[in-house]
């Protein structure tokens, strides 16, 4: 049996764009499930986390749009897709949650940034939501009557295991709330939304860790009593793969259905920024024999910040930024800066110091490699660096900062002396100093590394900031450009460091731009010139 889905699946459509869609909001008298309890207080949960909305709206002119509005951690993004022309516009900002940008009281919530806001001026902080966003291409303000749509409790009770170590994540959805408001496209006259033909899926999560990858769909069926939230995700360092759909049937029945997911990789879109492939069609098979076939109506709906990295692949400092971008799969454009010639006037306008890396993030310029790397880690929350608002976040960040400082204040100077030594004997002396400094200053800080700093299963900002230099030490030692004694003595002198370093230099993100042959050759030439 094929279930027909004529509505949006996270902005992915099955029917053709020329057909008008029938957006039918729910008509309930409260958002609350009055008979099946959730494991959390949803109004309390609303005070922080990820605020995601997809509004399927019809203007009084008959035009129809998908409007996405999302605030999470340090990211504010919105987009508008015209469902007739398939014209797509998006806007992404870096935004920081502070006491000034977020106001929470027992009966009020406001999150306000220059280009995006969320306001809930009701005692339960859910029943009525005002969502707004603006960009050079559009602006919108939505009045979301969340009280008109019964909550969908993902996983059956609003809490799911959604990260390493079975870490819990709250997840609940208001799937089809009556929506009114205005949408303005460019300089055109504002469009008025028809609330009888417009609804918003409001989605809220508080996460404690992130899966290694995930796919999420929302399904709306011809029968408006059926609303479905579908998850597919894998856990890092594990064979566990979770595939389940939470179905809100009628008003308060929540069903959790396992399924199998297959993606059609022959029908995939490749991001021009990240190079990653995104399938455009999927098949979901359920245990009773039912299945869904889902197809995307438009390939490029990537809502990513406009990032340009000015870099040089030979530079270990620029290498840091590449590791973050590769590890997190962040789309970006690249400008290679020639470090062997005077900087161009154009680049000196971007970075007057003429150094790399330089990051342009939505037109904002960020320089200095450690600052660039940490900015990206904060802007795209992940395993690299915990937020300062996490329970142990400030302590973990302090530990990472101390570890990195120990390397650069106690070890890195000896590496420079090895490379720039005037003779082999001078290089050997500095090589011994490197090994001794690592054994004394760095080795004790790696207690519990399993395999990465702090006992993490994936790299952290510590590996990002030190990895390029460790990689070069082992490459150059192996090639005989610097004393081979470094690589030979470390396993005995600093076994924890050696084991950790070997794990670091094998990571795909660390190796993403590293050309060992060119690095060895260029360093060998520099050493020869210095000793000539």
From TrEMBL:
Signal sequence interval, chain numbering: 1-20
Domain of life per record: Eukaryota
Domain (GST N-terminal): residue spans on this chain: 305-384
UniProt cross-references to Gene3D superfamilies, sorted A to Z: 1.20.1050.10, AttH-like domain, Glutaredoxin
Key words, A-Z: Signal
Domain GST C-terminal: 393-527
Keyword Secreted (UniProt): no
InterPro entries per UniProt: AttH-like_dom_sf, AttH_dom, Fungal_Dehydratase/Hydratase, Glutathione-S-Trfase_C-like, Glutathione-S-Trfase_C_sf, Glutathione_S-Trfase, Glutathione_S-Trfase_N, Thioredoxin-like_sf
Membrane-spanning parts: none
Assigned protein family: Belongs to the GST superfamily.
Protein's recorded name: Glutathione S-transferase
Protein source organism: Cylindrodendrum hubeiense
């Amino acid at each position: 049996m094929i279930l027909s889905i004529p509505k949006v699946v996270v902005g992915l459509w099955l029917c053709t764009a020329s057909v008008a869609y029938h957006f039918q909001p729910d008509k309930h008298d409260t958002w609350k499930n009055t008979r099946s309890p959730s494991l959390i207080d949803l109004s309390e949960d609303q005070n922080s986390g990820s605020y995601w909305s997809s509004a399927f709206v019809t203007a009084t002119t008959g035009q129809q749009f998908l409007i996405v509005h999302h605030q999470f951690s340090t990211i504010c993004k919105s987009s508008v897709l015209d469902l007739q022309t398939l014209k797509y516009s998006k806007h992404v900002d870096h935004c920081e949650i502070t006491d000034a940008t977020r106001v929470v009281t027992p009966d009020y919530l406001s999150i306000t940034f220059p280009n995006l806001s969320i306001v809930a001026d009701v005692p339960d902080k859910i029943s009525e939501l005002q969502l707004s966003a603006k960009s050079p291409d559009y602006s919108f303000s939505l009045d979301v009557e969340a009280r008109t749509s019964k909550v969908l409790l993902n996983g059956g009770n609003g809490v799911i295991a959604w990260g390493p170590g079975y870490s819990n994540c709250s997840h609940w959805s208001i799937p089809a709330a009556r929506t009114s408001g205005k949408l303005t496209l460019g300089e055109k006259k504002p469009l008025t939304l028809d609330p009888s033909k417009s609804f918003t899926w409001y989605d809220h999560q508080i996460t404690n860790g992130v899966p290694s990858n995930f796919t999420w769909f929302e399904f709306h069926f011809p029968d408006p009593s059926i609303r479905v939230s579908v998850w597919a995700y894998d856990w890092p360092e594990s064979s566990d793969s979770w595939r389940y759909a939470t179905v809100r049937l009628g008003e308060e029945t929540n069903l959790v259905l396992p399924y199998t997911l297959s993606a059609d990789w022959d029908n995939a879109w490749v991001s021009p920024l990240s190079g990653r492939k995104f399938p455009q069609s999927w098949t979901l098979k359920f245990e009773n024999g039912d299945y869904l076939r889902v197809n995307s109506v438009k390939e490029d709906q990537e809502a990513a910040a406009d990032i340009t990295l000015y870099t040089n692949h030979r530079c270990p400092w620029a290498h840091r930024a590449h590791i973050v971008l590769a590890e997190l799969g962040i789309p970006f454009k690249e400008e290679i800066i020639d470090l062997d010639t005077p900087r161009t006037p154009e680049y000196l306008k971007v970075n007057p110091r003429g150094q790399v890396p330089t990051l342009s993030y939505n037109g904002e310029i960020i320089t200095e490699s450690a600052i660039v790397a940490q900015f990206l880690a904060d802007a795209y929350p992940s395993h690299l660096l915990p937020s300062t608002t996490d329970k142990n976040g400030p302590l973990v960040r302090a530990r990472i900062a101390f570890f990195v400082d120990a390397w650069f204040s106690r070890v890195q100077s000896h590496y420079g002396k090895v490379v720039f030594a005037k003779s082999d004997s001078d290089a050997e002396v500095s090589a011994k100093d490197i090994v001794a400094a690592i054994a004394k200053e760095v080795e004790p800080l790696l207690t519990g590394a399993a395999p990465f700093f702090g006992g993490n299963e994936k790299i952290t900002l510590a590996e990002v900031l030190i990895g390029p230099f460790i990689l070069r030490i082992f490459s150059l030692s192996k090639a005989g450009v610097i004393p081979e004694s470094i690589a030979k003595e470390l396993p005995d002198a600093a076994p924890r460091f050696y084991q950790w370093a070997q794990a670091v230099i094998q990571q795909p993100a660390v190796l993403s731009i590293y050309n060992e042959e060119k690095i060895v050759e260029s360093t060998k030439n520099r050493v020869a010139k210095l000793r000539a």
